[in-house]
Structure formats: structure tokens, C-alpha cells
Amino acid sequence: MGVTGASLAVDAGNSKTDVALVGPDGAVLGQARGGGFRPAVTGAGAAVAGLAPLVAEAAARAGLAAPPVVEHVQACLANADLPVEERALAAEIGARGWGRSVTVVNDTFALLRAGLPDDGSVAGVAVVCGAGINCAGVAPDGRTARFPAIGRISGDWGGGGFLAEEALWWAARADDGRGEPSELARAVPAHFGLSGMPEVIEALHLGRVARSRCHELAPLLFAVAAGGDPVARAVVARQAEEVVTMAVVALGRLGLLATRVPVVLGGGVLAARHPLLHDRVVELLAERAPGAVPRVVTAPPVLGAGLLALDRARASERASEGAPREARREADREARREAHTRLRAHFA
To answer: Is 114 exposed, middle or buried (0-12, 13-18, 19+ CB in 10 A)?
Structure first.
């Protein structure tokens, strides 16, 4: 079932996936949300198959009896960290027949686009710090800078999952004397309703407390740091250092260190704007990249995927029409502004 001029925007993260059917005027015709997207665990085919019910749900919410065939599928996907992974996922999505064309990029590019203005500017850098950490940037000429962001094997440090493990590690060492004293040694057991770190370690080891609950310790770490604990504050400071290091390296690769460009910050850890973390990130950026303009984005990343789809649709229209007359050019600019504004308002 064709949907004239529409696009399918997909943002698939580690913990949740959003799909939106977007009209050429920026109206969201239908959308759906599902679980995490983990092709490295399930395989590309199974991961993409998991998107199918969401595409069908978005179509149903748009009043369509079957999944649509749109002009373009813009998929911004977590765990699409290497070009070979992007190609494999694009092939799997293309085989589904949802769109006449498909673009797959890492989901960090969705965050970047959501934080850029809608005037055609493409230059900027985004750092996402959610479950994990990643960074991507684009130069005015379209060149990109990015990192593999596969974890410690690719040199990464940080993200909510990593910070939670750090809180547990430092709490254990503070408790048994191998590390510095820390309020974490009391706060972590209290969080789980246990009497001390030996009981926490035993409960996690034997499965009486699910290891999946460890992610709850990242907010606890920030709370303990805000209370003045030196150990927790040092971990938060290290996270700020890593965020800024990634941004500065990306800016340097693109020749943008002295240029006034947005540095978009997003993901659950950065979007929370914990003062100790946020203020240190802003301070370090000012020192090391004077042109950087920090901007925190809290909108759902599927907004960025939708904006990228609108950008592509407008570019395709202009190419097919040739050089427009001035009146048509102004009408095109106005239509573009309205479409982007409508889409942003939907996800505000």
C-alpha cells in the first residue's frame, strides 16, 4: 500500500524502539514503540524482524490496513556501529519492502539532527550517554567523524551501565578496605534493602537480586556524588572528561575546534542534566573547544530520524524539479519550515 510522499522514521535503541510514519508535511500519521534493538545478540535478520510488528502498528494507527510502502525509510539504529553492520541492516530492511529507498545510520546521528537547526545546517557533533556512550559529527561539507563504540575493546568508558558497575565496584572496595571509604558502601546495600555489601555480592552472584537491576545504581551514584562523596564525585568527573574527549576529538577530525557549532548532548545520563556532570562538561568544552555550543536534547530520538527523512525528501524534490524560480524557492523554504515545525511540535 503506497503512501504518497511519506517516510518511515525508525529510532532503535538498546532499551526501546520508536517507529513513526511521517507525511511530507511533517505530520505524524502513526507511531509505535517497542523493546530494544540488539542485532549483535539476535542477528540482523531477527532484529529487523522485530521491527515488523511496530511498522504494522504504526500503519494501523494511520488508518492503513497493511504496512505501507513509503518513499524512504530512515533508520537510526543502535548497534549499527560499523559500516559492515549498517550495510547488513540496510539490506535486511530493504528486503522487507517498506520503502522505495533505505538509509541506515547509527542512532547517534538521530540525536545530532534533533539538535541542529532546520535551516539546512549540517555541521555539529553529538555525544549520547545513555545505556552506553557514543559520539558522531558532521562537517559542513558532509564529512563525518564517529567511533566504533563497541565497549572497552574500542576504548570506550562510560554510559549508564558502566557507571552502575563502577558504583558497585567502588562500594565493594570501600567496604572491604581495598579502596577509599565511600558512602556508596552504605547506599548500595540500602538501595537493595540489604544489610551490607557482602549480602549484595552474594545476592547478585546467586541470582537472588537480578543482575539487570544493577542499572538502578547509576542514578544512585549521582545522588551520592551530589552529597559530596569524593569517590562518587571522581567517577562523575571521569564521565564528564570522557564526554568532552569524544566531542573534542570528533571536532578536531572535522576541523571544527575553533568553529561555532552545536555540540548536542543526549541519552538518559546527559539529558538528566545532573549538575556535577553537566556543569563540568560545559566547563571543559569551553576550555578545549571555544566554538562549541552545548545543547541538551530531551526529545525522543525518533524526531531526529524523522527530520533526516524530511531533509532527504526535500532534497530529492529540488533535484527532480531542477533549479526553482525565486517564488518557488521561497515556497519550498516555507513548506520546509512548516514541516519541520510540525514534526518538532509533535514530539515536544
So the answer is: buried
> For residues 166 and 206, what is the distance between their CA atoms, to the nearest angstrom?
20
Which residue(s) pair with 30 in the sheet? Answer: 21
The residues, any chain, with a CB within 8 Å of residue 186's CB and separated by 6 or more, are none
* 33-85 per-position pLDDT tens digit: 999 999 989 999 999 999 999 999 999 999 998 878 999 999 999 889 999 99
Q: Which amino acid is at 110?
A: A
HEC letters along 165-187: HHHHHHHHHHHHCCCCCCCHHHH
The pTM is what?
0.91
| Count of other CB atoms within 10 angstroms of residue 247 | 25
Closest CA to 215 of 260, 164, 286, 254: 164
> What distance in Å separates the CA atoms of residue 170 and residue 323, rounded to the nearest whole number?
62
Q: Which of 28, 167, 8 is nearest to 75 (CA)?
A: 8
